[in-house]
Amino acid sequence: MALKAGRRPSVGEQATPGEVRPVTNRTLLITSLGVLLLVVLATTAILIASSGTKRPHTTDTNVPTGTKSSAGQPTPTASATSP
To answer: Both ends of the chain: CA-CA distance in Å?
Structure first.
């Protein structure tokens, strides 16, 4: 027994080969809401997981902390050889 267009098959009925039922607005809405919910949950999980990680501290100089820079100071041999 062939399926009439626009309704679901009853017990024992089968759709004819090549027959496609249209997608309803309700199906599109539920699918869209499901995808949106999954995106929000994934984004929230990533933000929660990354909130506990430490960010690297960057410095703007190449001089290690705790040492003095020798820039501008004369060397001992240069001042000793001056006449």
So the answer is: 118
pTM here is 0.45
Is residue 9 within 8 A of residue 3, CB to CB? The reply is yes
The residues, any chain, with a CB within 8 Å of residue 12's CB and separated by 6 or more, are 1
The 10s digit of each residue's pLDDT in 13-69 is 777 777 777 889 999 999 999 999 999 999 999 999 888 777 777 767 776 666 565
